Amino acid sequence: MAAGRPGERAGHRSSRAGSAKTPSGGTAAPEKPNLLTADGVRTAVAAVKAASGGAKVTGFVVYADYAVAEALVKGSTKRYDRYVYRGGDVAVREGPGGTAFPGTVPADLDAFAWDALPALLKRADKELGVDAPTSRYLVLTPGSTFLGSRAQAGLSVYLSDTYGVAYLTADAKGRVTAAYPRKD
User: For the chain, how many structural domains are there in total?
Assistant: First the structure.
């Protein structure tokens, strides 16, 4: 009998959870999520909220295949834990994150118009001058008591390649407030 996983018959392998059979009968890798969609980011937000017990963050960064949140520790307005979401049902706590920078005003993940994300990404593709981005990501920036009129939380969409980075900023409703395109 060939060695295999416990419970497998010789020459047979069970499919892993989340895997799908290919037309040729093999097992395909689980499909990776695209978190840079309205539904994708909402799924990440829901997972972070379930794992952390709240929606307040001092930072939130979303890539196509994972998201990282600095979620406030219950009962604190400054201390945060770091959570990573890579698809599936749960975000995983990766340990204490630390203490928020002085003046940081934690942001509520439920206060953002995530439906605006596709339009923000499209506008970034059109206006930022990064023709073939190798990386794209979303950064939620919390408000700050040090920034005066810019104290409100907002979003930034970044596009980068081997030559640098360009980005645009938006308010919580998804209205673009500034663009910083590549300058050649």
Answer: 1
